[in-house]
Amino acid sequence: MLTEKDFITTTYNSIESASFEWSAPSNIALVKYWGKKENQIPANPSISFTLNNCKTITKLEVIKKSETNDFSFDLLFEGKPKEDFKPKIQKFFERIEKYCPFLKEYHFKIDTQNTFPHSSGIASSASGMAALAMNIMSLEKAINPTISDDYFYSKASFLARLGSGSACRSIKGEVVVWGNHAEINGSSDLFGVEFSEIHQNFKNYQDTILLVDKGEKQVSSTVGHDLMHNHPYAERRFAQAHENLSQIKAILSSGNVAEFIKIVESEALTLHAMMMTSMPYFILMKPNTLEIINKIWKFRNETQIPVCFTLDAGANVHVLYPENVKENVLQFIQDELVGYCQNGQYICDEIGNGANQLK
Ligand code: DP6
């Protein structure tokens, strides 16, 4: 079992220059991460579906430099310099330097773009940090070719976690668990692990993301996590996440879609209930979020088609359903839900399997 110390690189060579390119997807949590301890350690374990189409594509060029006092990097977003992303990258480099002591020896040119519309309200931090972490691991592999594949992916997830917690679930596997859980072998607070006992019913599961509100969130996830300290329901919530993960583990293996729906919708509403019951309190759902939820419940009741919703920390609704009801559900979305989306926008996605090397 890998420990924190195993991720501290001590022996490595040097190269003059290199370039790499990776894509990494977004992910959608089924059991939610909400609340953390120091050093990006989650307060409870979480599990997610990896997405396929919502991705960040990041190119990294590194050039050896002579002074090694500071980090040095240029950042391009969709081909243009992006100053407002720089503090986040700077902070990320500071957090991971202990594990990648070679960072100050190179100048980095980071060129990044998303496949989903900018400011769609879709979390780009998960895919963005995951794609950057993959590139940094490619650099590590270039200067230390002895590392194993398993180490490569585990450390990529470990580094991504230090950038943004949920990013550690965007590295490898269709379904990923992050956080120690008694019943999941190899699970760790330090990185995500692939969960592979998945029943056929969940293969190619669909996620249509309804873009209800594309504006900036009033409260960032980082602030939200913090509000779980001294939260009146925190301890019970963390225990519940362990229980829900036990249940969903069994559900994903047995293929029980009806039970899946109960846990997933309850988790989404619990996440938002935590926001509403923190101090200060806040609401990230919009009126149209609730309209959509009610429509989904009505449609499910009337048709018995197993479609459900989940939410992340925002107003958008992820509509989840098995592949074999895709046609019916897309028709339902067209007929009844598109009117609640900002400019009628939604994104069709499905389960994918993680980061990919492009170069
Ligand atoms: C609601 O991973 O964005 O999406 O670690 O502070 O970067 P930081 O937070 P972040 O939190 C995501 C929370 C969530 C639930 C989840 O993805 O599990």
From TrEMBL:
Keywords: ATP-binding, Lipid biosynthesis, Lipid metabolism, Lyase, Nucleotide-binding. Residues 24-182 form the Diphosphomevalonate decarboxylase-like N-terminal domain. Residues 209-337 form the Mvd1 C-terminal domain. The keyword Transmembrane helix does not apply. GO terms for molecular function: ATP binding; carboxy-lyase activity. One of its GO terms (biological process) is isoprenoid biosynthetic process. InterPro entries: GHMP_kinase_C_sf, Mev_decarb, MVD-like_N, Mvd1_C, Ribosomal_Su5_D2-typ_SF, Ribsml_uS5_D2-typ_fold_subgr. Pfam families: MDD_C, MVD-like_N. This is Diphosphomevalonate decarboxylase. It comes from Flavobacterium tibetense.
